[in-house]
Design brief:
65% of the residues lie in helices and 3% in strands. By secondary structure, the chain is mostly helical. The termini are far apart.
Amino acid sequence: MIFEGFVEAQSVLLWSTFAIALVMGAVVNKTNFCTMGAVSDWVNMGDLGRIRAWLLAIAVAMIGVVVLESMGLVNADAAFPPYRSPQLIWAENILGGVMFGIGMTLASGCGNKTLIRIGGGNIKSLFVFAVIAVIAFYMTNPFPDSDKTLFSVLFYDWIRPLAIDTGEGQDLGKLLNPDNAVMTRLIVGGILALALLVFIFKSADFRSSRDNIIGGIIVGLAVLGGWYVSSNIGIDVDGEPYSLSAYYGEWDMLADTEEGKPAMGAPLSPQSFTFINPMGQTFGYVASGFNRSLLTFGLMAVFGVILGSFLWALLSKNLRFEWFASFKDFITHMIGAVLMGFGGVLGLGCTIGQGITGVSTLAVGSFLAFFAIVFGSAITMKIQYYKLVYEDEASFLKALVAGLADMKLLPNSLRQLDAI
């Protein structure tokens, strides 16, 4: 998709993203596709239905990315954020993932679910969104009249030195066979996706669950659609094609005026759906007085998911307004939102951004973040459950040990609470 001017090309990117997100928001609302709900069903009821739906989305996106990348139709190497960066920020992926997993459990849903709930009329989620947005913005942008960010003040000095330089890149293709990474990704991605599909569809219950199947497939295709659109829109300059990010990098040489120039070049890179950093971008956009130069793929994704969810809620007559049940409920959600804001940026994504979009690139950091998110959410649910059942008898430490023992991460001999 090559266009004659930058403004036209960027507009197609933004509106295409909005359209895909609109469908995604409606389908997620309709099918109740929910990553936190998937962990909850597994931990509390032993039901893997929604876990399988999540894994189906991963398999669809992964197959699509490795196939299209082998055809030159997706460029995940140049992604924003840089999932395949040679610098493996493993500690940030793990810590951020655990923080996000804990946060989404306390706040009743991940970033995507927060947007879905807003579209469905949930006022609580507006507060969660606002807290996430402010923290995510200042994690990546300096405070007023300062060159410091939340990340530089709280994390950079002690956690970034732990990063590992992997050489050319951290994805499985480059790590296993740097001389032919594309073909290796195709083979490895195909094997992993096939294994996931076998696990997913061996369940008769899942095969009979239309909503779980539709939800997993559509979310996976939406992520793939984001990769495809953002990788294939460009500008023709005297017969030579330029990607949006390349054109931005040479703006002074190629453009006659500053009109239509975005505020940043990185968000013009190939990418797909993620929701925590874009919430921060939303805060910046609103604070700027809705400056068009700040419109990005991520912003349009946020708007599209909310509107899609809202439209489905209207059509299905499920629009309902919900407020905090108590002051304790408010505090719990705010703590969760804070953890999601910090963790989502630190770990480089959320359950969609790392758990599907990042994993589809076969980046090691994305796998680490994905497992850390699931662990953070699962252990939080275990602690909540033990404290609910045992009340005053269950201190935080006792509930934590019991939860870890349930997850086979500590020996049963250490537990002081009977398994439930």
